[in-house]
Each structure stands twice: as structure tokens, then as C-alpha cells.
Design brief:
The complex is a heterodimer. By secondary structure, chain A is of the alpha+beta class. Chain A has 26 helices and 28 strands. The radius of gyration of chain A is 27 Å and the shape is globular. In chain B, the strands form 2 sheets. In chain B, strands 2-1-3-4-11-10-9-6-7 form a 9-stranded mixed β-sheet, with helices on both faces. Chain B has a two-stranded antiparallel ribbon with strand order 5-8. Classes of the chains: A alpha+beta, B alpha/beta.
């Protein structure tokens, strides 16, 4: 697509406008051609009409490109914004909520955590390595743009069925891409999650989250200010890669389309990113910067339009000064390029030399490419011509906003656990579950990610329910997690949305952290279909309820729609990235059992099998209502567990999630290489429902004195039960099974390496 | 052990170096003194530097061969002179690769045998303790250390390997939990399980794993600390 337009542009320029001719109005497209291109660029007819009304004339090619990317779903959130407003975004510790490059929360000691999660789904399907790598690069930039040094990255990944021949190649490329980029920039990759489901066959999800640390009073924002101030471009040179990436990311695919779209995927250079991090942080220690934003989706267009728009000023760019990697690039190509590792800054007058010296020291391009004006317009000049001249206020104020029709997902019936026969027994079910693709060890993946660089990783991948990363030179640490259970969201988007938020809160709580806030990455299908838009609206409703009940606001996020191939949508996947704080890293609880400890279950067990992994993997059924989250009990149970951990009385803690109670205990046993002898299930529940049900709001604690914890729980009116005692080398349920921990570990470790071999 | 005002260390930063912070924490913990940062373009070392440290990372993106471009950067000339004077040099991970590329240590680090980046904890056996780097370990002691590299598969021709072994220049070997240098313990495929080697005068050490990332109980242990304490007392 890009190649064809370039040729056209060159021909037209040759005929109508000699290079040396200076004009002040852009050369407009013939109306029928503008209409055709508008459609190609993804603008709906009414959106195209709005462009004409704003400009009062036909657009130039560059202008049409700018409108189409700024009004793409990816940049404008036109389908999701009306719903996202329902999410709570405030708390006393929130410094900046949604609307900036990333969310910012106070974490004590005068510091702030800056974090966000972002998707790179469509590029990762087309070119898994570069798609995933540039996803990591982009989210890192969103964080250090605000003045924060990135301290950790996490990844929430969803792949198609293991039986699909593409899955292995995509998984391999995505893991190599995340590692290739993250390892090189020197930010530890400390956690994440992986699911497999056929619904992701044509649309894998790659959601990357980065967390950084900055002084709370030194946060850098993107609103431009100061008429006449220089606009500065730093980082890599601009090439023709990624043109119209944002539009591509806002479209559905046909199955055979992936290869054709490859030129719209960008190529990452983590080495340059590392230099960019160091150079930006060095410059940020001075007072040179007025505003700064990375050039992400829609590159130079979105950064310049958004910075000037937010600041209520005009901006004028001279594209001849943009560092270019290729010759003969047109204004259209430069404005729409998504070349990576680039930033746009507004500097204080006279600060150019200081800034230039720092970027030259780090061997990065530095160019003053324009200045701020008082016109309220964006004016793009190239080779002596004005290529675009657009009023900024209507470009953002009149951006399309849709309240699309929604259709509720019918609530599924609650599955009666007693009505489901147990086909295999407890022992076989446990072995099958801990070795299945959704529950087996992820070590094959995280062993390819540098998780220790920085020297502050207290809980490495697999060691605890949340990653724990200490702050250099302080006792304080952050706990980090990503969570979502898409099969719950598919069955009941509202319950699933609440569950995703609650599980993130629970995982932070399980290490002893005080949960602070979340970032959300909303991955859904085509919003123009009422069922999909209904999923979105319901998920937001559930999330909002959980956020409010748990004082766990949303401070940043990203929406990825049109995740469909040939009309088959993904499971609704509102991935949640959670951040919590520990005053003292030494208090962080892991999940490894130790001999001689009592196991105590916190939370109520009803034996909820609907949408459980047991039901899917053992009974081969995907049905029923997902387990409901009782938000009051959730908070009470979690606050109780956190209090116990911080009082020093808990040696290990693990939340009960996918696979249920017995899987949770097995995971603790494997982590500690210690067995346990379990108490029998209560008589009023089928044993398989008790051991594999996925009731929410539960934790398994390993404590020196279980009776004492039961007494404390009773006082706090928290349901608690003694589960057994950690000892020996076997996991034993008297009268039912006794499995060696060694065997559990073998089965748990086997699937992924064998699949990827 | 803290030796106030003792060892003066300089940590070299190339474009792409990314474990200098970890290294400075470990050095400061053992020596009581914040190391100096040495920029790759410098053409002389500050007076009085006892120890030069080349850290982990991806110098110059490792785009040609790991360490190849860094080995030819301006600061490597004074570092070679420092080595010739018998000065102490520690190279970890990318630093080890740079020392090999610069000819300050023999051999090369190839792609890991499995062709994948490996980030995990490994075990190493301390082969001798009469060096400035290992005096605070026990001979034959098995220590844990995180490793994180794509190119850590140590390679040299048989004659060189024989000479390294004959001269007692193997610093650390990959071993299993019992201390045996089995084939499986060399996860990256390193020849003769070599994790680290010395120069002829035992004053230059290069190794792939990261002792600097295991110097604090909070981070999982202190197995790496004696290396820095040995240097502090050297």
C-alpha cells in the first residue's frame, strides 16, 4: 500500500509542483481520489466528511494520513472511550491517572512508580519476533518518557491451540523477541502469564508491562508549552518502516493476509533504546525539558499533534531537518513512519546545546525540527512546501466518538458440581492438570529472559505469586503481577472483568504487598459487533466494581480491538497489570513450602466447577457460570492474609486460582521440594469439586502454628481450615493418593520443552 | 569484610553496558568505596586505580560479535597497559567476551549450545583459592550464581585448553549439586565445563556467570560476595 502511494505522490509532485516552488497551502487531492484513499486508510464516509468540514477544503495526502491515524481506533479510542470513563481512576496515592504516557502512583520515600501495559498483538501475529520486541521497546519508552528509570517488565501472552501448526512458531518468535529486546536494554523481565486457546489461533496477544521509578516531584509530562520553544527530535533515524501501523492495528485480518502486511511492522533496535534511556534520564536531571513524548503508534504525527494539542499551542515542523535513514522520503511517509526508538521533546529556549551534548555523547541523532507557535495549528513543511496545515483543536475535539450498540452475553447457568461425574479420580486429575498447557511450568520461557539484571530482583519468576523488585539503596520493594482468566470473561464478561482485577489484587496481597493501582490492557474483537461491544462494556462494569471495592484504581491502559480473523474473535481478555508496595523487601512471602509447617486455607470453598480447568481438561466440558467474586469477602480475606504476612507469621503463601486447591498445594510443594500430608475433603462436597473447584478469594498459607492462625481467622470472621502439614517427599491424601514431589516436578516441567523441541 | 579506603575500582561503561549498577553495588558492599565510572572514550585510567571491571551487557549492541567492537574502543589501550603492569582486571559476561576479543584472555565465547539465551542459576566450583579473586572461598567450594547470556559457550583449541588446565588457569567450572563437572552441568556447552579463566599471572579473571547479582540475602544469597571480599583484601 505504502509503495503505491509513494509512487503516486512523486508523479503528482513532478507534474504540478516543482521542488523550488514555495507555497503556503498544501496541494490537495482530487475529491474522488481523496474519498478512495480515505476508505483505504480506514476512515468511514462520515469521518471523511468531517475531515472536509474541518479543513474547509480537500485534504492533501499528508493531511489525510494524519487524520486517518489520529482517528484510528488505536489512537483515538473512539469505540472504547465512553465505557472507559466508568473506571475509577483516583486514590490519594495516584499522582497521574490515564491520559499521560503512563500512570503514576506515590510509593513512599518521595518516589513514584510509573507503569503501563500495552498490546502489540497484530504485529506479533504478522512477525512474531519484531512484533514482540518492539512491543517491549514501546512500553519502555512510555515509562522513561516520564522521567522514570525502568526497573521491571512483565508480559501477558495468549497463544492459539498447541495443535495449531502456527502456534509453536509464534510462541518461539514472541519469546525470542521479548528476550532479545528486554535482555539487551538491561531491564529485568520478572513475570507474566501465558494461556493457550484456539480462539487465539489467528490473533495471539502480546501485552507488555513496564514499571519504572522516578522522584515523585520530577515527573515529565507531554503538554507542550512556550511559543517559540524548539521542538527537538532525538533517537534513531526515520525510515519507511511501520507506515500506517496504527491503522493496521485497528483492522481485522483475513487468514492469508499476515504476510502481505509485514511491511507495516517495525523493526526494533534495543541497543539504541538502551542509549536513549540513558541519554533521556541524563537530560532529565537538568531543567532543559518542557515536555517530552515518545514516537509510538503513528510516530511523528501522534507525538506532535498530542503534545501541541494538550498544551493548547500550535506547532510547526520542517521535515527536511528530520534525521532520515532512507533517501527520497515524502512528507506523508515521514509523518506516518513508525520507526522505533525516537522521542520528541520541547526544550526551554537556549537549552539546545546542553541537550545536544548529551545526545551526541550517547551517539544518538539530535535535531531541532521545528518550534511551537500561537496559531493552534500543525503546519508541516517539506522541501519548501507546506504539506499539511490542520487546526489542532478540531482534530482532537471532533475526533469520532462512538457509543456502539451492545448486546449482553447471556448469563450461563450455574453448573451443579454434583451432576458432573469424576471420570479419572483425584490422582490422575492432578497429574493431568499440572502437566497441561495452561498449568505446566513456564520455566522454558522465563529461562530465556534476564530476570536478575539490576541486582534488585527479590522474587524471581516462579518464586512467588507476584514478582518482587527492590528499589536500589532502599528497603522498599514493588510487587508486580499480570492477570486475566479469559475463559471466565467469555462465559460472563462482567464476572470475568471483576475476577481479573481481584486476582491481581490477590497476587500482590499474597506476597505481603499493599496493592496500589492497575494498568489495563483491553483485548477484544470487532467493536462494530454488538456482542463484542457488549463484552467490552460488561468487562469494564465488572472491573470498575472490583477497583472500587478494593481501592485499586486504574491509572493507565491500552485498548486493542478488532482481534478477529475471518470473523472469529478472541476470548475477551482484559489483562490487568497490578502494582503494590512493600515497606521492607525482607517481608515478601514466596510460595515455597518448608518441612514442618502447617497448611491453612483462607477463604470459603463451595466446590465451584463451572469454567474450571478441571472441567475443561478432565471432564472435557467448557460450560457453566465462572466462579463469582464476593468483593467484600475478597477484601476481608486479603487484608487478613497481608496482616499475617507483615506480622512475620507466614513462611509461604499462594493464592488459589487456575486448577483449584490441590494444584495450588502441589505448586507450593514443587517450589519448596517438600511433600505434605493432607486432611480429607469435607464430607458435604464431592472430593473433586473441593480439590479442583476454582472458588475465588482463597489463599493457602504455610505457617508454624496452624491452630493459632485458625483462632485469629475466627476472630477476624475469615473462613479458614487446616489443610495438612508439610513433610516428607510425597504429596499424600490418606486413602486417595501419594505422589512423589519429584514426579510432580517432572510432569510439571515436561510439556513446554517437549512441545517446543 | 569491609576494608575502608581500600581497593580502588573503576567500572567501565561502553554504550550498551547494562550490569554496571549491579557491579557497583557489589564492589561498594565489599570494599566500602563507591567505584569510579570509566567512560569508553577515555584514553587513560585515573591515577591509582587498582582494579578495572568490565561488566555485563550488550556493548555496541553486540551487533558484530559479542565484545568485538568494545575490544577496539579507546579505553582498551590503557586497560591493556594496566594488565601489562600486573594490574587487576575482572570481566564478567560481556566483560569476559571483551577480554577474549581484546586478546587479554585466550579463547572465545560462542553461541550457547542450545542456541537460546539462558537465564538461570548455575553452580560453579572454585578451582583454586590462591588468587586475588578467590582467597575468601574454600578450594572445591560449590557456589551458586545467576547467569544470563546468549553467548557463553567457552571455546579454545585443545592445546590451549590443555595449557589452561596445566597452568591452573581454570577459575570456575560448571558443576552439578554434588560438585561434579558433568556434561549436563555445562548448560551453555562450554568446553571442559569452563565458566571462568585467569590470565597467566592470575591477575585477570573472566567469567560468564554473575557473582555480582548474588551478594545480598534478600536477592537469594551471598555466594558471590567472597569474590569481591577477596578483591577488597587483595
Amino acid at each position: 500500500m505504502a509503495v503505491r502511494i509513494r509512487a503516486f505522490d512523486a508523479v503528482e509532485r513532478g507534474r504540478d509542483a516543482p521542488e523550488d516552488h514555495v507555497t503556503d497551502t498544501p496541494e490537495t487531492l482530487p475529491p474522488e481520489r481523496a474519498a478512495r484513499l480515505a476508505a483505504e486508510f480506514g476512515l468511514k464516509p462520515d469521518e471523511h466528511q468531517r475531515v472536509l468540514a474541518i479543513l474547509g477544503r480537500q485534504p492533501s495526502l499528508t493531511e489525510l494520513g494524519i487524520f486517518s491515524v489520529m482517528w484510528s481506533e488505536h489512537c483515538s479510542y473512539k469505540s472504547s472511550r465512553v465505557w472507559l470513563r466508568e473506571l475509577p481512576t483516583r486514590a490519594p496515592w495516584v499522582i497521574h491517572g490515564p491520559g499521560e504516557n503512563a500512570g503514576v502512583v506515590a510509593i513512599g520515600d518521595g518516589l513514584a512508580a510509573v507503569f503501563k501495559m500495552e498490546s502489540h498483538n497484530h504485529p506479533s501475529f504478522i512477525e512474531p519476533y519484531q512484533g514482540a520486541a518492539t512491543g517491549v521497546g514501546g512500553i519502555l519508552r512510555d515509562v522513561f518518557t516520564m522521567g522514570a528509570r525502568p526497573i521491571a517488565t512483565l508480559n501477558a501472552l495468549r497463544f492459539g491451540s498447541p495443535d495449531n501448526p502456527r502456534t509453536k512458531r509464534i510462541l518461539d518468535g514472541v519469546v525470542r523477541g521479548i528476550g532479545g529486546y528486554g535482555n539487551c536494554v538491561g531491564v529485568p523481565t520478572v513475570g507474566g502469564e501465558v494461556n493457550f486457546h484456539p480462539a487465539y489461533d489467528g490473533n495471539p496477544l502480546v501485552n507488555a508491562m513496564t514499571v519504572g521509578i522516578a522522584p515523585a516531584d520530577r515527573i515529565f509530562l507531554s503538554a507542550a508549552a512556550g511559543v517559540g520553544n524548539p521542538v527537538v527530535y532525538v533517537g534513531s533515524k526515520t525510515g519507511r518502516d511501520g507506515i500506517h501501523g496504527a491503522t493496521m492495528a485497528s483492522a481485522e485480518f483475513a487468514a492469508d493476509e499476515g504476510d502481505e502486511k509485514r511491511p507495516t511492522v517495525q523493526v526494533g533496535d534495543p541497543f539504541t533504546e538502551k542509549l536513549l534511556i540513558e541519554a533521556c534520564l541524563e537530560l532529565m536531571a537538568t531543567d532543559a525539558i518542557v515536555a517530552i513524548q515518545d514516537m509510538g503508534a503513528a510516530g511523528l504525527t501522534s507525538s506532535s499533534v498530542e503534545m501541541a494539542g494538550k498544551g493548547g499551542v500550535g506547532i510547526e515542523l520542517d521535515l527536511d531537518r528530520v534525521p532520515q535513514r532512507e533517501t527520497g522520503m515524502t512528507a506523508y511517509e515521514m509523518m506516518l513512519s513508525e520507526s522505533q526508538e525516537r522521542m520528541l521533546m520541547i526544550l526551554r529556549p537556549g537549552a539546545e546545546d546542553t541537550a545536544r551534548a548529551i545526545f551526541e555523547k550517547w551517539e544518538l541523532d539530535f535535531a531541532v525540527i521545528g518550534h511551537l507557535t500561537d496559531t493552534g495549528r500543525i503546519v508541516i513543511r517539506h522541501q519548501g512546501r507546506v504539506e499539511a496545515d490542520i487546526p489542532l483543536a478540531p482534530l482532537s475535539d471532533q475526533a469520532p466518538l462512538y457509543r456502539r450498540p451492545t448486546e449482553e452475553t447471556p448469563k450461563p447457568a450455574v453448573l451443579d458440581a454434583g451432576s458432573v461425574p469424576d471420570p479419572v479420580g483425584l490422582e490422575t486429575a492432578l497429574i493431568t492438570l499440572i502437566g497441561c498447557p495452561d498449568l505446566c511450568s513456564r520455566a522454558w520461557i522465563w529461562d530465556q529472559y534476564d530476570s536478575t539484571v539490576g541486582g534488585q530482583t527479590v522474587k524471581r519468576p516462579g518464586a512467588a505469586d507476584a514478582a518482587v523488585v527492590k528499589l536500589e539503596g532502599l528497603r522498599r520493594a514493588l510487587a508486580l503481577t499480570t492477570d486475566c482468566t479469559p475463559r471466565y470473561c467469555q462465559a460472563d464478561p462482567e464476572a470475568g472483568g471483576a475476577q481479573a482485577v481481584a486476582e491481581a489484587w490477590r497476587n500482590l496481597t499474597a506476597v505481603g504487598a499493599r496493592p496500589l493501582a492497575i494498568t489495563d490492557n483491553m483485548n477484544f474483537g470487532n467493536p462494530e459487533r454488538p456482542r463484542i461491544m457488549g463484552q467490552f462494556a460488561a468487562a469494564v462494569r465488572g472491573m470498575a466494581a472490583a477497583c472500587r471495592a478494593l481501592d485499586f484504581p486504574v491509572v493507565s491502559g491500552n485498548v486493542s480491538l478488532y482481534n478477529e480473523t475471518d470473523g472469529r474473535p478472541i476470548l475477551p481478555t482484559p489483562a490487568i497489570g497490578g502494582v503494590g508496595v512493600l515497606e521492607d523487601a525482607a517481608q515478601a512471602a514466596g510460595l515455597a513450602l518448608a518441612p514442618g509447617l502447617d497448611l491453612v486455607l483462607i477463604g470459603a470453598t463451595r466446590g465451584w466447577l463451572g469454567q474450571s480447568l478441571w472441567l475443561r481438561e478432565i471432564a472435557r466440558r467448557e460450560e457453566g457460570a465462572p466462579p463469582p467474586v464476593d468483593l467484600v469477602a475478597e477484601r476481608r480475606n486479603g487484608d487478613f492474609v497481608r496482616r499475617l504476612i507483615l506480622a512475620g507469621g507466614v513462611r509461604a503463601c499462594h493464592d488459589v486460582s487456575d486448577g483449584g486447591l490441590l494444584v495450588a498445594i502441589a505448586e507450593m510443594a514443587m517450589a519448596g521440594d517438600v511433600g505434605a500430608v493432607l486432611e480429607p475433603a469435607p464430607a458435604d462436597l464431592p472430593p473433586y469439586a473441593y480439590w479442583f473447584g476454582e472458588d475465588q478469594g482463597r489463599y493457602v498459607l504455610a505457617v508454624p502454628d496452624g491452630r493459632a492462625v485458625l483462632a485469629e481467622a475466627a476472630t477476624a470472621r475469615v473462613p479458614a481450615a487446616l489443610l495438612g502439614r508439610a513433610e516428607g517427599a510425597h504429596l499424600t491424601l490418606p486413602g486417595a493418593f501419594s505422589i512423589s514431589v519429584e514426579r510432580l516436578r517432572q510432569v510439571h516441567a515436561a510439556w513446554l520443552p517437549a512441545y517446543m523441541a | 569484610m569491609r576494608v575502608e579506603g581500600g581497593m580502588r575500582a573503576g567500572v567501565v561503561v561502553f554504550p550498551g553496558t547494562n550490569r554496571e549498577r549491579d557491579m557497583m553495588i557489589a564492589l561498594e558492599r565489599a570494599t566500602g568505596r563507591r567505584p569510579e565510572v570509566l567512560w569508553h572514550r577515555e584514553t587513560a585510567l585515573p591515577a591509582g586505580i587498582d582494579l578495572v571491571v568490565l561488566c555485563g551487557g550488550f556493548s555496541y549492541g553486540d551487533y558484530l560479535r559479542c565484545g568485538a567492537i568494545a575490544a577496539r574502543s579507546p579505553i582498551m589501550r590503557p586497560i591493556a597497559e594496566h594488565a601489562a603492569r600486573g594490574g587487576l582486571i575482572l570481566g564478567v559476561c560481556n566483560g569476559f567476551q571483551i577480554l577474549c576479543e581484546a586478546g587479554l584472555l585466550p579463547g572465545a565465547l560462542l553461541r550457547n549450545a542450545g542456541m537460546r539465551f539462558l537465564s538461570m542459576e548455575c553452580r560453579m566450583r572454585v578451582e583454586r583459592t590462591d588468587t586475588p579473586f578467590t582467597a575468601h572461598y574454600q578450594r572445591g567450594q560449590v557456589i551458586r550464581a545467576p547467569m544470563a547470556h546468549g553467548d557463553g559457550n567457552y571455546f579454545a583449541d585443545a592445546a590451549t585448553l590443555d595449557r589452561l588446565e596445566g597452568e591452573g588457569r581454570i577459575a570456575f567450572r560448571y558443576v552439578d549439586a554434588t560438585g561434579a563437572a558433568t556434561g549436563a552441568a555445562a548448560l551453555n556447552g562450554a568446553a571442559r565445563n569452563i565458566a571462568g579463566i585467569y590470565s597467566e599471572n592470575l591477575r585477570v579473571l573472566g567469567l560468564m556467570p554473575h557473582p555480582e547479582d548474588l551478594v545480598d540475602p534478600l536477592m537469594g544469597g551471598t555466594d558471590g560476595l567472597p569474590l569481591f571480599e577477596s578483591l577488597a583484601a587483595a
